[in-house]
Amino acid sequence: MATIAATGPAVRRSADRLLLAGSLAGPVFFASAATQMLTRDGYDITRHPISQLATGGLGWIQITTFVLAGLGGIALAVGVRRTLTEGTGRRVLPIFVGIFGAGLVAAGVFTMDPEYGFPVGTADGPVGEMSWHSIAHSAAAAVAFTALAAAAIVLAVRQARRRTALPAVLNGLAALILLMPMSPSHMSIQIAVNGLVAFTWTTVVAVSLRRSSWSA
To answer: Which residues of the chain, if any, have pLDDT below 70?
Structure first.
C-alpha cells in the first residue's frame, strides 16, 4: 500500500506514534458514543444523531470525544504524509485526511441544538430555528465526511494503479457510502453508519501503514 522512504529509526518511531494515534481515533469515538447511548436517559439512535450527545449537562463527554477523534485524524494525516513518499496521491491524501480531522474538532466545538426530546426536558419536536453553532456543526461535519470520501477515492485510484483490485474496490465503496444523500426519515441511523465506515477506514489505513513502515 505504501512506498516508504529510507528514513532513520527516530523518524519511523515518530510516524509510528502518529499512525497509532490515528488508528485509535475510531475505537475511542465509538466506545465513548456507545456507552453514552446506553446510559443517557432519553437517547434514541433512531431519532437522535450521535452529535446530539454533545448537548445537555453531560454533553462535554461527547464534545471531548469529537475533539480527541479529530486530533487523532490530524495525527493520522501527518503520519500518512511522513509514510507515503512516492506514488499517486501522496500529497493530497494527507490533506484530505487532515481536513477530516479538523472538521471533527470543529464539530465538537460547535454543538447542535437540543431537539426531539433530548436531552430530557427538551420539546419533542424539531428546533424552530437552528442556532449559529448548530449550523457550524452541520457544516463542519459535512466538510469532514466529504473530505474523507475524497481521501478514499484518492486511495482507490492509487491502489488501482498499483493493481491491488480488492482494496481499490473497498475504498470506492467507502467513498460511495460517505457521499450518499441523507434520508430525512433515517438520518440518525445513516449518520451512525457513515461514522462507522469513516472510522473503520481510518483505522485500517493507519494499521496498514504502520505494518508497511516497519516491514520496509
So the answer is: 1-8, 213-216
Question: Which residue type, as a one-letter code, is found at position 86?
Answer: E
HSE at residue 116, side-chain half, CA atoms within 13 A, is 11
How many residues are there in the chain? 216
Written as one string, the DSSP assignment of 78-145 is HHHHHH--SSTTTTHHHHHHHHHHHHHHHHHHSPPPPBTTBSTTS-SS--SS--HHHHHHHHHHHHHH
Distance from CA of residue 101 to its chain's centroid? 7
Q: What is the pTM of this model?
A: 0.90
Phi-psi region of 117 (alpha: psi -120 to 50; beta: other; left: phi over 0): left
Bridge partners of 118, per DSSP, are 115
What is the spatial distance between Cα 102 and Cα 7, in angstroms, rounded to a whole number? 28
- CB burial string 34-45: b at 16+ within 10 A, e below: eebbeebeebee
Question: What pLDDT shows up at residue 216?
Answer: 43
What pLDDT does residue 8 have? 64
Classify each residue of 119-139 as buried b or exposed e, where b means 16 or more C-beta atoms within 10 Å of its C-beta.
Answer: beebeeeeeeeeeeebebbbe
